[in-house]
Amino acid sequence: AESTLNFNVHNSGRPGNGCSSTPSSLMGVVGYGLFQWCGSRAEELAASGKCGKNCSLQQQLEFTANEIRTSRNISPQCVRRDWIKEINEASTPQRAADIWNECYERGPGGIEKRRNFARDIEPGLKCQRIND
Length: 132
Hints:
The protein is mainly α. The protein has 7 helices and 2 strands.
């Protein structure tokens, strides 16, 4: 919702709450990228892809996949359950967006906007389930 699907956006106008409480040496209090990383996560993303402030969509998705695989930065209540399976089995794109926000993105608000985006982009997606 904050990135408006612009994978290289630097959002200083409405960074997440975590950005102001944990600024990074690389980004300050700016949220960055597809999922508006800030603080140590922005620094880890930049280091993992050796991409600094301009990581490609592929680098950001690989970073995200690694966080999910290793349960790094996943909400504690979600680590204990199969939340990816819950997303895959969600009855609506809006429900999948709720789970994603609760477990991974943890956006500060605007869940209705997230639900609407999920509903609007779902018809154009070609999804493939993988077991990894």
